Amino acid sequence: MKEQLKIIGALKIYLNGELKVDTTNMIVTAGKDWVTARLKDATPSDLEMSYMAVGTDSTAAAAGQTALLAELDRNALSTAGGTVSTNTITYDCTWAAGDGTGALTEAGIFNDPSAGTMAARTVFSTINKGAGDTVTISWVWTIS
Q: Strands across the sheet with 51-55, in order?
């Protein structure tokens, strides 16, 4: 018997409470390596995914990418390290009015406030976030 372990990512992006994007994402090579390393030496305080970033580049996601291609802003997740339930982990992050303003087209999950490992990246149709707008991203990984 052969069993396969998969990580599937999906996210929803809301602009002022209205669903704008409902899509899947790519768990990049560095993200898969990060998950594998946690199976051996987990040190959550400095290694957990606790940040999400948004950017303005629409180049397709690729497995070898290690950063957003045009990062605009990075915020701490609503719950550091995400929220675990059964075989899922949910990462939530909000950009309030005046924060992360621009033509958003990419997002990623990171373990550092300014650099670190990018575990996942997604590209989506442009969301024009004005200075008075709020954007919330809910990103769910399912391990199956």
A: 71-76, 51-55, 102-110, 118-129, 18-27, 7-15, 135-143, 88-95, 83-85
